[in-house]
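Obj: model holo form, ligand = zinc ion.
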Amino acid sequence: MSYTGPEFDSPAPRRPRRGAMTVAVAALVPGALLGWLVYEAVGDTGGPGSGRTEAKAPSTIQSSPSPASPASPASPSSASPTSTGNKPAPAATDAGSLKGKVVVIDPGHNPRNFQHSTEINQKVDIGTNWKECDTTGTATNAGYTEAEFTLDVARRLRTILQEQGATVKLTQNGDRTYGPCIDERARIGNEAKADAVVSIHADGVGSGNRGFHVILPASVHAGAADTRPIVAPSRELGERIAGSFVRATGSGPANYVGGGTGLVTRKDLGGLNLSTVPKVFIECGNMRDSKDAALLISGAWRQKAAQGISDGIVSFLRG
Ligand code: ZN
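Output (holo structure tokens):
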């Protein structure tokens, strides 16, 4: 059965443009040059995405014309030695440095959504149109669900951010029977007056499609949706997360959307349309590709993913 619902269907595959040296290159390249090099290095050895069976093609998809930005100097990843001897740790690990900052983490879907199809299929108003309350999400071929993945990464991310002094709120923590609905997910970030919101996902497209992408809100103004004030800061947040995610995980930008930038802009996602605070989604990898799945099921890799997302958020919050 298909686990993927309309809210998180991915855009249609674009013809990959470039090759697949991204991981090796990205792992070697620090800070400022990273985005450009990722953009230049991603190649066309990836499959054309012909195996995709679930994705439909929202006409609203735009690949970003610009490469992932040169994010500010990388925060040390958890794997990096950050201090020697008795010297104090560098600023990125200073406790309390994010004091006063509020981050909302939205673990996509819910492990029990599949038991509540009636409830999650009810439509909610996302301003531009009506969408299902929530969807079940995808899964690996072996049955590791996206909802389990998103919750685990979210909890790891929360821990990292709290250690740096941020106030962190999850939209759900495995403590609800379903949902929340996508409009409520947005509202939680808005009411928290979050400085940044990240919705965690993994994609479910055909084998051979690999890599991560960050989804940015398009400018929409319809009904209750008005993203105009958050488009620019959300792009900044997304670009920083894309850069730090490459550095922390070694994963490359998606080879099937985004033109090698790891960035995609969409206006069909209620969780973005209804946000009044800077917000992005991240699709951390493709659960239906065996190589990506091997990463996604690894706790060690999920820790790197959380670190990468955290580094991007921290960089954004520090300006
Ligand atoms: Zn999802």
